Each structure stands twice: as structure tokens, then as C-alpha cells.
Amino acid sequence: MKTFRLLSALGGGCVLAIALSPPLHELSEAYFSVHMIEHELLMAVAAPLLVLGNPIPAMLRALPRGWPRALVQWLVPPFFRRAWLVITGPLIAWFIHTLALWLWHIPALFETALRVEPIHAVQHLSFLGAALIYWSSLLQNRHGSGGYGIAVFSLFATSLQCALLGALLTLSSVPWYPDYPDLTDQQWAGLVMWVPAGFVYTGAAIAFLLAWLRESEAKTQRWERSLAP
Hints:
The protein is mostly helical. The chain has helices at about 1-20, 20-30, 30-55, 55-60, 65-75, 80-85, 90-105, 105-115, 115-140, 145-170, 185-225.
């Protein structure tokens, strides 16, 4: 498990670096399809890997005894800890993720982000932040066995949203963004959101569904053994 967490954290960090590195970032300024790849790497690949890796506890454990608790209490007041528990609730986390996805693809906001670098940085931070909140709500399950069902529903709903937005971009007969006037490039961008991103969310939903079925089967077997004479 420790190896898996380490590999996940390293993988998430590498994907994050690739998404924000000059080669991909520079190409994204010329091609909408590359810009969409950049966003999907942040939201659908780097974020879940970082949440699975959960590197912060490991880094805190490396500190001298007594330091982690003091550091957490100093840097993270109780208000912020309570706020984190609220925003990583299933419904609120899904809403934040949905809001980030749709708001930043409104042409006026998207174009502003393209032309004003600080707003572009805010866009990337909001995509990554919303995704970290969303995947934390799914992967750091604090909701018992019912969390599996909530996760399956949430992920399928997110997959449908990606498919809808991707289809709107792909099937549109006019470019949405003046800075990306190539309609074919926009169609490729739509396909990136429609297909690969959709596969990530659908695949995660199926994984949660299988885990839910395994847990239900294990509970049934325990119940049957308890009834056995």
C-alpha cells in the first residue's frame, strides 16, 4: 500500500509537471485541442493520482516527533478543517467540480483567461483545486458503505457532463472562441473531453461499483455464517 501511494503521488506530480511545462503550455496557446488535453490532465489524471498518493501525511511523518501535530494546529485552524469536511461532502464537491467545468468554458471567461495570464493561472488553479476536492470526496470515503453508491452515481453524472460539453464542442458548426478560430481543432478538443475524459470517469464509476458489489457479497457471507448452526 505504501508503494502504491508513493507511485500515485509521484505519478500525479509528474503529470502535473507535464501539463504545466513549457512545451505543452506553449502548444496550448496555439491549439485548443492541446489546451483541452492540458485541462484534462489536471482534472482527470493528476488530481486523482495526488489524492490516492496523499503525500502530505507521509511528509508530516518524516518530521521529528511532536512537530506534525503542532504544525497542523498552527497552519490549519479548526475552522479550515471543518470547512474542508463540508466542501468534500459528496454533493458540494460534485457541484464545485461541475461549476468549474462549465463556467470556465463560457466563451467570455475562456477568452479572458487566454488573454490575461494571471486569470489563466486562476483558471488552472480552479480546475486543479475543484478536481482535488471532487476526487477527495470520492477516494477518501468517510460515508460508510453507502459511499460506494454515491460515488458511482456522482461519477456517471460527471461522465455524462463531459460527454455533453464535448459533444457541444464537437458538433458545433461555428468556433466558440475567437482566439481558436479553427473549427477542426475545436472538434478535436471536444472529442478529448467527450471520449478520453469520459472513459476516466466511467472507468472510476465501474471500479467503485465492483468494490460495492464485493463489499455487499462479503456482508452477505458474514450474515450467512452468523446464521449457521
